[in-house]
Amino acid sequence: xxxxxxxxxxxxxxxxxxxxxxxxxxxxxxxxxxxxxxxxxxxxxxxxxxxxxxxxxxxxxxxxxxxxxxxxxxxxxxxxxxxxxxxxxxxxxxxxxxxxxxxxxxxxxxxxxxxxxxxxxxxxxxxxxxxxxxxxxxxxxxxxxxxxxxxxxxxxxxxxxxxxxxxxxxxxxxxxxxxxxxxxxxxxxxxxxxxxxxxxxxxxxxxxxxxxxxxxxxxxxxxxxxxxxxxxxxxxxxxxxxxxxxxxxxxxxxxxxxxxxxxxxxxxxxxxxxxxxx
Length: 278
Known about the structure:
By secondary structure, the chain is an alpha/beta fold. Helix content is 42%, strand content 19%.
């Protein structure tokens, strides 16, 4: 995009991909407002948004929003004369923003961050590609990248370094709990069921790595209950059917589904397995 100083990036800092996008935005001197919302961020949760955006850049003409949906709020911004550019790759309740490209890949394309430019900025293009691939289709997707085995291992290590940068002590707790949950896993007709009783500690990310380490060739269907607040189903052809049945959101190119316990109870293990076996 030309005239970068007429733009503002609105982006959370709640996972490895968003952290990488923020590192790139800093490198290209893109005016940026970092959202403090966790996963499930919504534009309605950004209080006094326009004032905060103009504080970041009084000359803003274009707002680039990364994974913070809000159709009404987006339209309100457009009525103010602001061009709104959406970067996303998820399917939400009543809102389809699924994409075959990860948000990182969309960001790179939008700002013409090719391999030459990334190298000039001090980044390893293959590590950036690795982050995009992992977010797009997790570790199994790395096999589709132009990476040899050493580079694949380096990409995983780089991704995990971003994980720890998001919060060392908290991430260490997540890793410890994930090991306990994995040890207590249950397998039901080829579906791996993982259950944590901790509502506040996120275990999906570290559990996903454990699953990938134990199933390097082909991803199994996995159900992850994170306390009573969230449930995920990963690497399943039934992810879209779960979305159509129970709402929530899909990610990973519609191969993964999740739901948060906002206004209604989560579907039970039996209800989820019924869909997976249908």
